[in-house]
């Protein structure tokens, strides 16, 4: 059992991690470099869990072992990408300070902190921008903006029904973020995205009254993310 791979049980976060990446591909066009980036990003994401665990958990040797394994695989997939276009490394510049924020909260054993969550969400968006850049050599900040805003609203909601369910602030933030952002998108004519926020608002109002367990909440979030992703690409 000691050699069993260390994998985060936050499956919803893994889905969120690939939304900006896939959004970028739909907004541009698929190129071979996307395969290398996607594979490298997958193992870099897997690497992050044991890596941050080095700073917060007792069994450091096991954390270090799997962090090294995942990082080596990620680097192997990144090698053809870097061989072809070193300019992709520019996207590591915003990712590094975001990683330091996450290291800080890992050391504090406060990985559920809102700012730690936002740092992770922003990292997902930067990877999406990198994917768009690979196909177009252009920067498209919408790839970062739209998923980041929606995922922050989702984070408020998840906290309101999970660890912060006794804190009314997160319920208010959940309602307000879904409502205000939905209205803003509707005002600018992005009706499909506004609709995704409307669905999110309805679930934020109804689900807490159902007293679902965290697994049921998580399953619904997969559907919410799918609705949002479809809204992005239509």
From TrEMBL:
Pfam families: YwiC. It comes from the Bacteria. Keywords: Membrane, Transmembrane, Transmembrane helix. The chain crosses the membrane at residues 7-26, 32-55, 67-83, 89-106, 118-135, 141-158, 179-206, 212-233. This is Sugar phosphate permease, required for N-linked glycosylation. It comes from Bibersteinia trehalosi USDA-ARS-USMARC-190. The lineage of its organism: Bacteria, Pseudomonadati, Pseudomonadota, Gammaproteobacteria, Pasteurellales.
């Amino acid at each position: 059992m000691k050699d069993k791979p260390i994998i985060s049980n936050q499956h919803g976060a893994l889905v969120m991690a690939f939304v900006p990446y896939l959004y970028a591909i739909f907004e541009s066009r698929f190129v071979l470099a996307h395969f290398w980036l996607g594979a490298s990003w997958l193992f870099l994401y897997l690497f992050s869990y044991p890596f941050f665990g080095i700073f917060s958990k007792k069994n450091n040797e096991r954390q270090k072992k799997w962090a090294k394994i995942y990082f080596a695989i990620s680097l192997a997939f990144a090698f053809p990408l870097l061989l072809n276009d070193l300019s992709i490394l520019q996207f590591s510049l915003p990712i590094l300070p975001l990683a330091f924020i996450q290291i800080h909260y890992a050391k504090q054993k406060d990985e559920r902190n809102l700012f730690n969550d936002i740092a992770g969400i922003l990292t997902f968006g930067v990877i999406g921008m990198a994917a768009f850049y690979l196909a177009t050599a252009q920067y498209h900040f919408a790839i970062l903006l739209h998923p980041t805003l929606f995922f922050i609203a989702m984070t408020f909601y998840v906290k309101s029904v999970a660890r912060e369910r006794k804190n009314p602030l997160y319920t208010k933030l959940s309602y307000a973020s879904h409502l205000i952002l939905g209205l803003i998108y509707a005002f600018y004519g992005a009706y499909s995205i506004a609709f995704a926020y409307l669905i999110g608002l309805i679930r934020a109002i109804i689900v807490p009254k159902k007293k679902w367990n965290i697994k049921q909440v998580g399953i619904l979030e997969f559907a919410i993310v799918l609705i949002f992703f479809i809204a992005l690409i239509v």
